[in-house]
Amino acid sequence: MEYYAAASGSTSIEENVEIVIVPPNKQMDEIERRNRRFKLYRAASRGDWNTAERIYKEDEINIPVMLSKDGGTDLHIAAAAGHTGFVKKLLEQMNKEDLAVKNNAGNTAFFLAAASKKVEIVKAMMKKNEDIVKIRGDNDILQLHKAALIGDKETVEYLYEANADEILDHDNDHIELLISLINRGWYDVALQLVERHPQIALARDKNEETALHRLARLPVLTRILDFNSIKVCKNSAIYLYNEVKRDVINRCQSMLRMQRVKERNKLSLRDQMNENEQQMNEKKQSRKKRLGWRYQVYEAQSQVHYIGEEIPDSAFELVECLWKQVMLLVLDDFQILEIIKKPRSLIFEAAKQGSLRFLDIIFSRYPDLMFEVDENNHTILHVAVMYRRNNIFNTMYGIGLFKDFIVQDTDKEGNNILHLAAKLPPVDSPDIESPALPNKMEREMWWFEGVKKILHPVVAEAKNKEGKTPRALFTEQHKELRENASKWTKDIANAGIMVSAIIATMLFAALFTVPGGTNKNKGTPNFLRRASFIVFAISDTIALLLSSFSITMFLSVISSRCEEADFFWRLTTDLGVGINLLLYSVEAMGVVFSATMFIVFKDGWLWVPVLLTVMAVFTMLMYVSKTWTVTEEVRHSVNKNR
After folding, report:
1. Is residue 177 packed enough to be buried (19+ CB in 10 Å), middle (13-18) or exposed (0-12)?
2. φ, ψ dihedrals at 543, nearest 5°
3. Of 101, 58, 52, residue with least CA distance to 78
4. Phi, psi dihedral angles at 266 (to 5 degrees)
């Protein structure tokens, strides 16, 4: 080492600079060592054990070895990448204490393995060191929680079965795991957790919410009619296959079912889940037998003609189990109300989502909760009106006690229930569907008029603190929506008229341009007696009449003033009928085309009209499946609200 003194200007300050001269051979060794470490890192990330093993032997490296700046070892890298074979080879040459090594983020390789969705790696590490499951990761997260957060159900089931009772130290672990399972939709595993630890029904997460609060916010997805012909055919085939498969499995199980030797509490988690699923299927089958063919028809229609999903039955079984534990563990009414209302009322949260089945479970054990009010003096009936929940509204109003006094109550702003119906839905209203603008306006009109029917005329004309009647408030709130709906409706009608007019013109001309020509002496068509010609004439006439009628309906829409009363029924109906007639005319026009092809090519190549007809049918199906969306928005999106 050599030292140099440096002076600057007239100052006498001296600086000692130490310069380290590294021999060239040592520099080459350091570069080679880094290259080998990089190759080892790449081998671990790719799962290349042959390359890694050769480097270990040549450099005599002890396993595990740190390979990255974040403190990650070869085991961390391979486990995070999900290379099962590489990890197993490493484990054969490691001590059990080596698995406890953490990287700079505070995570062990076992923690990263739990997040890799490779349950075989988790099992191999657990076999090497069973205590590794107790070491938490970054932010004090357990491997079980991490697997649930990323959606690895197989790893969750394995860790839960192996060490759940040992690693879940306190209520926070239980409730965080339960919320993660609910968020993932694993209600069967969550049900097992609640049955093992009933006290979890009272626990609160970091947001001060119970599991019931989370279940109350589960969105109830609306099942919307889907008229896509191709999808309907595909869904029908899938439904038929599943029904046959389910029937065969049930028959085989009934013939080969063996007597269980173990008691239910001694069964594995997977066996308990299978047993629960089997019991649910048996209940469903008994319901099918009780309702007979009506249930079969309804189930088939739901599976084939509807899109969207519903909350599974297992979720409501979990709700029932949690609520039962609350009622058993808490006997004081004040404490029960505190659980229900803190931090927000789960009754009103379920009402916002339209979860009637959730409310039925709650009210069945505590009917007084139906008449709870919030800080704005709103009941569940008022919430149903504000959030446009028809099922909740009809059910609650059907209870006689609501008719007498709740519909006449006012909130802090002096609004009665009709004022709430006159307002637009709140901004936090869950999106059930996205109907067309005319349907939104029609739905709002139906809601307002429906609520108005249950009120006395004097109450319906009452003013709030701002001096506005419900009707005046409705007009003010829906002014922009009415204008946008009017513009949208007339634009669609104008486009429909153009298409209908073009179709009518072509079809009218086709009647006088007879395919195959006419007899010069008699003036009659040459192929008058052919079946294909008769089909051509009839379908052409039908298509022409349908397109003409659709023009009439579109003209009725365009000539409308689009006032509020017009959206109540007439506008959407006329527009829907016009679009339907236009669709039918297009289908009839496809028949005209196919019949014409058979007239022209019947005496020649028959495969030509057959091929063209198939192509025409396929094109019409694609056209109808795309265009029917507009019809559905116009005609069907508000039927359930009426």
Report:
1. buried
2. -60, -40
3. 52
4. -100, 0
Element (H, E) at 306: strand 306-307
Half-sphere exposure for 587 (CA within 13 Å, toward CB): 13
Alpha helices in 461-601 (DSSP H): 470-477, 479-512, 531-558, 564-568, 570-601
CA angle 431, 391, 372 (to 5 degrees): 95
Which H/E stretch holds residue 447?
helix 437-453
d(CA 62, CA 56): 7
Mean pLDDT by 10 residues, the chain (642 residues): 33 41 54 78 88 83 79 89 91 88 89 90 89 83 85 85 67 83 89 88 90 90 52 58 64 49 44 52 53 50 54 90 92 87 91 91 90 86 90 82 65 89 82 59 86 86 91 91 88 91 87 65 63 83 92 91 79 86 86 79 69 72 56 45 40
Q: Catalogue all structural domains in the chain, each as residue range(s) with its CATH number.
A: 25-167 (1.25.40.20), 224-255+267-307 (no CATH), 487-641 (1.20.120)
pTM reported for the whole predicted model: 0.69
Amino acid at 76: H
Q: Which pair of structure tokens corresponds to residue 88?
A: 């197993």
Q: How far apart are CA 88 and CA 605, in angstroms?
A: 68
Q: Mutual orientation of helices 479-512 and 437-453 as an angle, nearest 10°?
A: 120
Which tokens in the block code for residue 536? 């051509």
**Bridge partners (DSSP) listed for residue 6:** 15
CB 476 within 8 A of CB 468: yes
